[in-house]
């Protein structure tokens, strides 16, 4: 068959157009929130997430992580907005993990306050920060994406998109490689997509967010007016289960929205709203991405939350729209309500299924005694430790370059009384075996003011038992222990030397009752217990619980009735465990690594 030139040209144009508007190269993922969303780069707890977390997320079936970043706060501020090199030190490692694991990473400028309108002056900030980002990442792989600004609002889409065009041009003057995510105003509203231009740049993805019906997805949200007391709104609408309007919301928009919920709270209404984005996608033949959707956990009925995710996720996928749910951990996350959010123990299996994610095997967590040294701070806060300090109007810098060893140390000054660095163990730790085996608090400290005095302490876990409180066991550091001469000093304090002092609970002081529990330690604190710190400057480095690894634990396996051996030992993937019993009985065999993980 002979093809005419006209037919050949038509085929070529169709082929070329399909290349220009190829499918988005990812399908589903999560937002990794409350990591880079801080007021400054020095408030980032970098070790909150690791490469293991990226691997866990990928194992769920995710091929993209959207990473919200308070980008404007990662700079020296007005007027230059020069990005702090420490920020690139952190973010580069996250990019490395994504590239090594072959999972896409969307760098989302999340410099955003829901209650403050986006001003046209944002243009000057964006035109400073994004060229720096483009310069730094232009040679990285295609796994990296840029999102210009999360949820602009209080500004018309027309004005916003003129600014967005300038930012696109600024990035493209440096980086012509990486895909840029763009969106409309109105909090990235799907209703505002129609007011966006079709930009000439073809390496773009157009984003929208979806949280409808809002009465359902945000019930209990403290950051939204009159929503904080709303609870139990079902999805879909069910007249028999509808809650009354809370007293705090009477006469407000919340009450009128609840009255209209029989219309808004249906599956058909949800699909109709998503269709607004679908129609934009198909009518303009553009790549569209749902960057956020989710349901706030605390006040929403769990089964209804699961159903909403199932409806929204399936409809997005049916219409060929990739997505990232809000969020991985946190108020909208993938973990059981009120849990410690540990990947191997606390995932909400029903939510995972509704999102079409893989469901990892979940185990029941139990605390096992620590039997080896562990780090609380060495350059970074330790693994499975969360920063929980209170600067008390002063400064706590976890990345001071004035270190005794390695790259960083902790710098502390200016705190009010009862404030200071804090370290929350997640999960709680059983230190009883370490105490019995003469372990020590081991750290380096220096200060510049003679007479300095502060307290270090452990707090145990408050249980539901009547009369229990978060008991403290403490040790005072003063000039009898350290010469405050501006030089580094090494302290090693036996855990047995700590003394229980009492508990502060619900604004009440409870005197010591000998109830501190080394088997359930919640956190470690350094506190200006005896007065405000003032101008005193103190540095800490290499904070550890240290001692000789306890190898005799395995001897506990041997008894008159139970004998066990494992080979090869140390364990490999093919280790055999053999045990002999004095009589026939059921046995549970559990294996723990040296970090106490089951």
Give a verbal description of the structure.
The protein is an alpha/beta fold and 598 residues long. It is built from 13 helices and 24 strands. The protein has helices spanning 5-20, 51-59, 85-101, 122-137, 157-172, 185-188, 214-217, 253-259, 261-264, 267-284, 302-318, 349-354, 432-436, and strands at 28-31, 64-69, 104-109, 144-147, 180-183, 204-210, 288-293, 323-325, 374-378, 380-381, 385-387, 395-400, 409-413, 422-429, 440-447, 454-460, 472-477, 489-494, 499-505, 508-511, 521-527, 537-546, 562-567, 576-581. The strands form 4 sheets. It has an 8-stranded parallel β-sheet with strand order 7-6-5-4-3-2-1-8. Strands 9, 10, 12, 13, 15, 18 and 22 form a 7-stranded antiparallel β-sheet that branches. Strands 11-14-21-16-17-19-20 form a 7-stranded antiparallel β-sheet, with no helix packed on it. The N and C termini lie far apart (68 Å). 36% of the residues are buried. Mean pLDDT is 92; it is low at 1-22 and 552-561.
């Amino acid at each position: 068959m002979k093809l005419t030139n006209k037919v050949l040209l038509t085929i070529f144009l169709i082929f070329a157009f399909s290349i220009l508007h190829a499918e988005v190269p990812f399908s589903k993922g999560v937002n990794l929130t409350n990591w880079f969303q801080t007021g400054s780069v020095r408030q980032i707890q970098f070790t909150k997430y690791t490469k293991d977390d990226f691997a866990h997320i990928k194992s769920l079936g995710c091929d993209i992580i959207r990473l919200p970043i308070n980008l404007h706060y990662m700079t020296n501020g007005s007027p230059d907005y020069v990005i702090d090199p420490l920020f690139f030190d952190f973010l580069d490692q996250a990019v490395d993990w994504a590239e090594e694991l072959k999972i896409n990473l969307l760098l989302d400028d999340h410099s955003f306050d829901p209650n403050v309108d986006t001003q046209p002056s944002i243009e000057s900030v964006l035109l400073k920060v994004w060229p720096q980002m483009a310069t730094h990442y232009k040679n990285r792989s295609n796994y990296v994406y840029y999102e210009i600004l999360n949820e602009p609002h209080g500004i018309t889409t027309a004005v916003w998109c003129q600014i967005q065009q300038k930012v696109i041009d600024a990035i493209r003057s440096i980086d012509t490689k990486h895909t840029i995510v763009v969106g409309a105003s109105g909090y990235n509203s799907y209703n505002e997509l129609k007011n966006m231009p079709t930009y000439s740049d073809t390496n773009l993805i157009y984003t929208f967010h979806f949280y409808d019906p809002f009465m359902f997805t945000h019930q209990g949200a403290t950051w939204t007016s009159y929503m904080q007391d709303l609870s139990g709104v079902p999805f879909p609408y069910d007249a028999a289960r509808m809650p009354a309007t809370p007293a705090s919301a009477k006469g407000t928009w919340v009450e009128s929205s609840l009255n209209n919920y029989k219309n808004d709270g249906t599956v058909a209404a949800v699909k109709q709203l998503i269709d607004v984005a679908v129609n934009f996608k198909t009518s303009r033949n553009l790549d569209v991405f749902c960057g956020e959707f989710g349901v706030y956990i605390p006040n929403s009925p769990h089964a209804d939350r699961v159903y909403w995710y199932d409806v929204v996720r399936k409809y997005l996928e049916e219409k060929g729209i990739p997505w990232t749910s809000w969020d991985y951990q946190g108020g909208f996350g993938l973990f059981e309500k009120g849990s410690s959010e540990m990947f191997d123990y606390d995932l909400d299996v029903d939510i995972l299924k509704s999102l079409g994610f893989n469901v990892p095997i979940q185990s029941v967590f139990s605390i096992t005694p620590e039997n080896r040294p562990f780090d609380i701070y060495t350059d970074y806060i330790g693994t499975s430790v969360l920063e929980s300090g209170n600067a008390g109007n002063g400064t706590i810098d976890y990345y001071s370059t004035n270190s005794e060893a390695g790259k960083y140390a902790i710098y502390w000054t200016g705190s009010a009384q009862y404030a200071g660095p804090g370290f929350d163990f997640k999960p709680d730790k059983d230190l009883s075996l370490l105490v019995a085996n003469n372990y020590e608090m081991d750290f380096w400290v220096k200060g510049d003011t003679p007479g300095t005095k502060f307290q270090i302490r452990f707090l145990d876990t408050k249980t539901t038992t009547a009369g229990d409180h978060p008991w403290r066991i403490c040790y005072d550091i003063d000039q009898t222990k350290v010469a405050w001469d501006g030089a580094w000093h090494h302290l090693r304090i036996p855990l047995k030397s700590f003394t229980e002092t009492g508990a502060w609970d619900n604004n009440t002081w409870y005197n010591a009752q000998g109830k501190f529990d080394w088997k359930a330690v919640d956190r470690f604190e350094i506190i200006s217990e005896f007065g405000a710190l003032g101008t005193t400057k103190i540095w800490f480095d290499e904070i550890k619980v240290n001692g000789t690894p306890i190898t005799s634990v395995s001897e506990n396996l041997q008894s008159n009735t139970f004998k066990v051996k494992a080979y090869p030992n140390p364990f490999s993937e093919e280790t055999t465990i053999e045990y002999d019993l004095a009589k026939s009985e059921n046995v549970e065999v559990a294996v723990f690594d040296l970090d106490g993980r089951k």
